[in-house]
Every structure is written in structure tokens, then in C-alpha cells.
């Protein structure tokens, strides 16, 4: 926050919205509502004996009121911590903690900065960087202390009235005792556990403190012991820590060396020091990962689209009731709903400025139909002579180097080589920023060397992606264009002196409907797909009606070969026409799975080997949530969150070269959903529990109401701050475009002023920088 810029305060209960100017750089804000303390804030009436209650009022570091505010707005700045009186609409200064640049003062040493603040039961805690550790100011005991790695210093300020005096190091008592795992403290959280011991001096239960440091997480327990949660490798740097609503500790850990990827973990508070192994669940109750290539994570946190598989570092995180979490890297919000008994079946939802996925289950394989842009999309074939029907390489550049590229008698491309590369490429016209799917059939796989599909801004370039092709199957690659001309290159690797060949056919590039899951496997657009808001003024759009030549098809995707294992399909449908296909995964000759509306108006679910079950509920012309799944050898159909049909399911849904059609059957662009529309399609390799299905329905149904908002306000996805108010059940998300307030998955309010580094909220009061 630049000098003299106001931080903004909104009190949704009675004070309206107003501003207060401060003149330095805020690094953290905390709304301390003493009414949520163990005694409801009654401790404030028992402080007449303290030095700060009796110090001189109306000074530069002390306001006009003796009593501690019922609601205090605490602002940590570069060189000060200021407590403002939140009981007064004018938000006057109540108390200031300054720092001394050469020695100790109340809450800092030698002017070192504060990274985070929190408060509970009359104690203000600060997490300080630059080797400074943790400080706390106890307003009932009337002193401040410092906690370091193996020493506790204090009292630093013997009274809070002397908080701004320079205190020589020699005058600060030192106790050698267990401290923090590392001295750079990045975040701090405090809670009061059930049955916490009572501090005889204050009459209040003793808080439990969690500190995220550059060396791991330290939990200072209410019995005075300290336990550490560290990593067995160099991945201990924590920038976020909090307590869940059922008193677990949740924290982010980053790579100390690069910080380019992260884990978010939920643990029981350990009874002794704990070291967990990187890239494993270990003893964590939940484990969420930012790296795309880690298949063991409970759920993948949304990262920047341009990020590598190493992911991004976690920027902000807060805990929510009912085992929910909200986490951000630098690209929108990931909401998480833990499923602790089952681990990898957690729910996750991505919310950005231009799409919202709804709840995705566990090992998600496809999440699409989630845009907010209601512009109809039209897809056409961008590759010329991709089926080589001319019998030659018309429109293709033969760029073989000591290898060969020819077209055989079956009008198929044959690449061959022994000491060089057989390769061809074709430039196509693309729109910068738009997403496309390129697909190709490999009919004969090379015995050595390997075939690669390359997409880039020059011949053989890989700027937009590359894919190795080693088997006989259809391959597909989704890419976002970075140039108006994009090159599609097919290249056979050097055969190490042995003649090797690859036979390829049906090269296709079409505009994509994006897959918002971590996999990013888009669907190709055929013809024109109509998009309209799901309701008047709503953010989400509906796709359809479809026709036999207008729909979405995903080329063969081995991720959808679930065999006889569990899987699930979740989608919203609106329509009344019978015999309409919602989706179908098949080849021209065989079915793997499909969901369609029967002539009776019920849902039919085919799940392999001629196994089929049908619902009893009639699907009307209203938005209806349909969830079809297989769990432990049984198939189920749920309608609007309620189980409606079930049956035995032992058949395999693996089908080589099967395409997935959305809104139609994919074989020859067949039967279509001509009388209905779809939204929020998700397919997963895990099956949600009945409770999760009910949650999905209840949380998402509000997004299909008139004027329902589902995304971040504005066009920025870079989240600058998060806060949760457990009184109003509001999650506040700050970006450069303003503050977006969410209840569940629905945005219920927004502001239009940029949010800088911090938001804090309690009991209807929202304070932002």
C-alpha cells in the first residue's frame, strides 16, 4: 500500500462502509473480535491494574480511550503495529507499537519487520522475519515476550506502557527452552483447544500457537511444549498456517531452493516432533499438491496455465468450516472439501475470473462446460490434407533429414529413417490466446527412435507443446496459440542405424472447448455450439441444444479407460426431448459408456459390457443435476443429489480408440442432444460418496438461478488476499479488480477498488488494504 492510501473497512452489521488513512505500508491486517474470546471479551473489564490502562492518553502512540476495544483492527506496517478502535465508526488510533532500529522494543528487535499478526484471549502475536522469531504482547499480564529457536526472551517490555522504549539486550532475561524450529517466521495462527489449561494469572484458557517458518511448522502447545512438523527433504519453507475448525493444523510447505511448487497439508497436532516424507501422504490427514505430474495428491491446486509441471508456490490459504479449505497460488481460487477417511476422494473447485468448474471429485480426468463467455463457438478443420487423401504430401512440408516421408497406397503418411529424421510439418492459422486440440492416429509404431508430435511457432518448434507417440492409438495434444501462425510437426526419431518406420493418419486441429481439470485435455468443436447463460443474468453458460453436426468430441483419451474400476460422471442438464445423448464414449462399432435421456424422460446409464441402468425420476425442463457412477462393483444414478437407481456393474469401460462425444454420439457425428442443454461436465476416476453428491447438488444449484455470479469479479486472476468470516459465512477474495465475496461457490457481493496485501473479516466487519 502506497503512502497515505486508505485501507477500507466495511461493517455489514451497522456501520456501513468507510475509510481510514494510514501513512505507511501495511503487511498484514487482523480484525480482533474479543467477543469470540473464551470469556466473550469480559477480560477487557479486568485491566484497570495494568500500565497501559493508566498511561497518558491522547499521545502519538496512545489514543483517547483507556479500555481495550471490543473489536480491534490491528494493522502491521513496515515499522509499526497499530491497534485501531473498531467500536468507533471513525476508527481512531487506540495504541501504537513502534520499533527501535538498534536494540529491543516491545514487539521487534532492531527494527526488523513483521510478516503476520493474530490475537486471542487478550494476547497479540506477531510472526517476524529476518531471524526475529515470534513476539507476543499479553494485555492481562502487561508485558511482551520473544520466542526464538532455543531461547525465550522476556519479558522484553516489562510493561506495555513501556512498549516503545529502547531496551538494551543485557536487560532482557533469557530462558533456555524449546523454541521454534527456525527463526524466520512467515505466518502465525492461534486457537484455544477444548479442555485447554487455565492460566492462573489471567483466568483464561491458554492458547495453542502454530508458526510457519523457513524450516517447518512449530506448534507451541498449551502445556508449554513445542512440537515441529518438518520435511525429510529441503521442502520446509512455510508461508501459510492455520487451524481448522476441528482443531487440526493446516499449512503450506514450499521448496526452500526454488519455491516453485508446494504442498498443502492437514495434520493432527502431533504429540512429538514429526518429519514427513516429500511426495507422499505420510501421516497427513489430507495432502494437496500444486504439481500437475503428481498423481498421488488428494487434489491438485490450481496453478498458472503457463506453469511447468513443477507448479507454483502457494500464496494464501484459509480454513473453512466442514473440513473445507481455500487456497491460491497466483491464478484464481481452489476450494477444497476434504474427504479424510478416503484420501484421494476429496472435492475441489476452481474459481477464476472467466470460469468456474463446480466441485470436481478426487482423481479428476475432465472438467469442461464451465465458461462464462456466452459467445457461440464454431470449429472447422485447420489442417489441409490431414487424411493424405490426395495420395501425396500436398500442403505438407517434407523436412526429412536423411530419413524419408512418403504417402503409401492406403493414403497414409509413412515416416522412415535409420540415421536421420523423417519429418513433415504444416503451418496453420491460429488466434493468439485461443485453445486448440491437435489429434493424430498412429497406425504403425516405430520399433526404435520414437515418433513425436510437436507444436510451436516454427517448424519442429515445441513452444506450445510436444507429445511422444510410442503405441498404436490416437494421440491428442491441447495447446494455446501464442502466434498467428502455428506449426504442426510430425517427426520420427533417429533409429540408431536400424531402419524404423511410423505410419500416421488423420491429422486434425480444431478449436477447443477447454478442459479445466489439471489434465488440460480439451474437446474439439464440430460445427457451431450454442452458448447462453443458464439463467437470466447468470455467470455460467449452457451449451446446446446440439445437432448431429454440431457438438463436442474429445479424441481418444486413455485417462477415460477405467476398466472395471470406480469412476463417475457429473453434469447439469436441462431439456425435455427423449432419446437425447448427454454424452457417449464409443467407436463406430462399440460402446464404452454413455448417459442419455430415454423416451420415458428418465436417465439411462450404460457402463460397459451391455450393463445399463435407468432412473425412475422424470427429467423435466428444469436444470437437473445428474451423477452416474460405479463404486465397488455397483453402478448408481443420482438425480438432484438423491440415489435413484442402482445395479451390478462388473463390465470394463476400457475401449481402444473410443472418442467421447458431448451432446452427441461421436461415431460419424450421430444422434444428438437436440432438445437440451448441458453445463459443468466432470468425469473422474474416483466415485464420490453419497454425502459428497448431495453437497455437489446443494452447493451448485444456486449457480443456476437468475443473476447468480460464480467467478471472481473483474478480469484478474492474481489473488492478493483471502479472509473468511465464520459469522456471515463469507469468503472474501482480493484482486487488483476489487474484492469478491463468496458464500459457498456463489459470489454474493463485490467491490471495485483494488485490494493490496491483506484482508481480515469478523462478524460482518471486513478490513482490506
Written account of the structure:
The structure is a single chain. With 769 residues, the chain is mainly β. It folds into four domains: 6-224, no CATH class; 386-513, Jelly Rolls (Sandwich), CATH 2.60.120.260; 523-704, Jelly Rolls (Sandwich), CATH 2.60.120.200; 721-768, no CATH class. Strands 31, 33, 34, 36, 39, 41, 42, 45, 47, 48, 49, 50 and 54 form a 13-stranded antiparallel beta sheet that branches. Strands 9-10-11-12-13-14 form a six-stranded antiparallel beta sheet, with no helix packed on it. The termini are close together.
Kindly list the characteristics that best describe this protein:
769 residues; mainly beta; Jelly Rolls; 4 domains; 13-stranded antiparallel sheet; 6-stranded antiparallel sheet; elongated; disordered N terminus
Distance between the termini: 7 Å
Q: What is the tally of helical segments?
A: 1
Q: Structurally, how many domains make up the residues?
A: 4
In one word, what is the shape? elongated
Low-confidence stretches: 1-5
Largest sheet: 13 strands, antiparallel
Number of strands: 61
How much is the average pLDDT? 90
Amino acid at each position: 500500500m502506497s503512502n497515505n492510501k486508505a485501507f477500507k473497512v466495511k461493517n455489514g452489521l451497522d456501520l456501513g462502509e468507510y475509510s481510514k488513512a494510514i501513512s505507511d505500508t501495511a503487511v498484514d491486517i487482523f480484525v480482533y473480535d474479543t467477543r469470540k474470546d473464551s470469556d466473550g471479551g469480559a477480560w477487557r473489564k479486568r485491566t484497570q491494574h495494568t500500565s497501559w490502562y493508566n498511561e497518558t492518553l491522547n499521545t502519538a502512540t496512545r489514543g483517547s480511550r483507556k479500555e481495550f476495544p471490543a473489536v480491534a483492527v490491528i494493522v502491521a506496517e513496515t515499522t509499526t503495529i497499530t491497534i485501531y478502535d473498531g467500536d468507533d465508526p471513525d476508527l481512531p488510533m487506540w495504541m501504537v507499537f513502534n520499533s527501535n532500529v538498534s536494540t529491543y522494543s516491545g514487539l521487534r528487535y532492531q527494527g526488523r519487520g513483521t510478516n503476520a499478526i493474530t490475537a486471542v484471549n487478550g494476547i497479540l502475536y506477531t510472526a517476524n522475519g529476518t531471524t526475529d522469531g515470534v513476539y507476543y504482547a499479553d494485555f492481562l499480564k502487561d508485558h511482551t515476550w520473544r520466542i526464538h529457536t532455543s531461547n525465550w526472551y522476556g519479558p522484553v517490555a516489562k510493561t506495555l506502557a513501556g512498549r516503545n522504549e529502547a531496551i538494551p539486550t543485557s536487560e532482557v532475561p533469557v530462558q533456555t527452552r524449546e523454541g521454534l524450529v527456525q527463526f524466520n517466521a512467515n505466518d502465525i495462527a492461534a486457537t484455544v483447544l477444548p479442555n485447554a489449561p487455565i492460566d492462573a494469572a489471567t483466568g483464561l484458557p491458554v492458547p495453542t500457537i502454530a508458526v510457519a517458518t523457513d524450516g517447518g511448522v512449530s506448534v507451541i502447545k498449551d502445556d508449554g511444549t513445542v512440537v515441529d512438523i518438518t520435511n525429510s527433504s529441503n521442502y520446509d519453507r512455510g508461508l501459510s498456517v492455520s487451524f481448522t475448525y476441528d482443531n487440526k493444523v493446516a499449512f503450506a510447505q514450499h521448496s526452500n531452493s526454488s519455491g516453485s511448487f508446494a504442498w498443502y497439508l492437514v495434520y493432527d497436532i502431533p504429540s512429538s516432533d514429526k518429519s514427513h516424507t516429500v511426495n507422499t501422504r505420510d501421516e497427513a490427514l489430507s495432502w494437496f499438491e500444486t504439481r500437475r505430474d503428481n498423481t498421488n495428491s488428494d487434489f491438485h491446486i490450481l496453478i498458472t496455465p503457463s506453469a511447468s509441471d513443477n507448479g507454483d508456490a502457494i500464496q494464501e490459504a484459509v480454513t473453512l468450516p466442514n473440513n473445507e479449505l481455500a487456497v491460491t497460488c497466483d491464478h484464481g481460487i481452489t476450494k477444497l472439501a476434504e474427504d479424510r477417511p478416503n484420501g484421494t476422494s476429496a472435492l475441489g473447485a476452481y474459481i477464476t475470473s472467466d470460469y468456474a468448474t463446480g466441485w470436481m471429485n478426487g482423481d479428476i480426468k475432465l472438467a469442461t462446460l464451465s465458461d462464462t463467455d456466452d459467445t457461440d463457438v464454431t470449429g472447422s478443420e485447420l489442417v489441409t490434407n490431414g487424411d493424405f487423401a490426395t495420395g501425396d504430401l500436398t500442403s505438407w512440408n517434407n523436412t526429412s533429414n536423411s530419413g524419408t516421408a512418403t504417402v503409401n497406397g492406403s493414403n497414409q503418411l509413412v515416416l522412415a529413417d535409420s540415421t536421420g529424421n523423417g519429418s513433415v510439418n504444416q503451418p496453420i492459422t491460429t488466434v493468439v490466446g485461443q485453445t486448440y486440440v491437435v489429434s493424430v492416429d498412429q497406425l504403425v509404431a516405430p520399433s526404435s527412435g520414437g515418433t513425436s508430435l510437436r507444436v510451436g511457432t516454427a517448424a519442429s518448434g515445441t513452444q506450445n507443446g510436444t507429445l511422444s507417440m510410442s503405441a498404436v492409438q490416437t494421440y491428442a495434444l491441447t495447446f494455446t496459440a501464442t502466434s498467428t501462425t502455428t506449426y504442426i510437426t510430425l517427426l520420427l526419431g533417429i533409429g540408431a542405424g536400424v531402419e524404423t518406420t511410423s505410419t500416421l493418419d488423420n491429422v486434425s486441429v480444431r478449436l477447443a472447448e477447454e478442459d479445466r481439470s489439471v489434465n488440460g485435455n480439451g474437446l474439439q468443436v464440430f460445427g457451431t455450439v450454442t452458448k447462453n447463460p443458464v439463467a437470466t443474468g447468470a455467470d455460467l453458460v449452457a451449451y446446446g441444444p446440439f445437432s448431429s453436426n454440431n457438438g463436442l468430441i474429445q479424441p481418444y483419451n486413455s485417462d477415460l479407460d477405467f476398466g472395471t474400476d470406480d469412476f463417475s460422471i457429473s453434469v447439469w442438464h436441462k431439456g425435455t426431448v427423449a432419446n437425447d445423448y448427454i454424452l457417449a464414449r464409443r467407436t463406430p462399432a462399440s460402446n464404452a459408456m454413455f448417459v442419455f435421456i430415454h423416451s420415458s424422460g428418465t436417465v439411462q446409464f450404460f457402463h460397459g459390457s451391455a450393463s445399463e441402468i435407468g432412473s425412475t425420476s422424470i427429467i423435466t425442463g428444469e436444470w437437473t443435476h445428474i451423477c452416474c457412477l460405479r463404486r465397488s462393483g455397483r453402478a448408481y444414478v443420482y438425480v438432484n443429489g438423491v440415489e435413484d437407481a442402482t445395479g451390478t456393474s462388473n463390465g470394463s469401460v476400457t475401449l481402444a480408440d473410443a472418442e467421447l462425444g458431448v451432446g452427441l454420439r461421436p461415431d460419424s457425428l450421430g444422434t444428438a442432444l437436440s432438445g437440451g442443454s448441458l453445463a459443468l461436465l466432470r468425469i473422474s476416476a474416483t466415485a464420490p460418496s453419497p454425502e459428497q453428491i448431495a453437497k455437489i447438488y446443494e452447493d451448485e444449484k444456486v449457480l443456476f438461478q437468475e443473476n447468480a455470479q460464480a467467478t471472481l469479479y473483474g478480469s484478474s486472476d492474481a489473488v492478493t488476499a483471502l479472509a473468511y468470516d465464520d459469522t456471515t459465512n463469507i469468503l472474501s477474495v482480493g484482486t487488483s479488480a476489487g474484492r469478491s465475496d463468496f458464500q459457498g461457490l456463489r459470489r454474493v457481493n463485490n467491490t471495485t477498488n483494488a485490494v493490496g496485501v491483506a484482508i481480515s473479516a469478523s462478524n460482518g466487519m471486513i478490513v482490506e488494504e
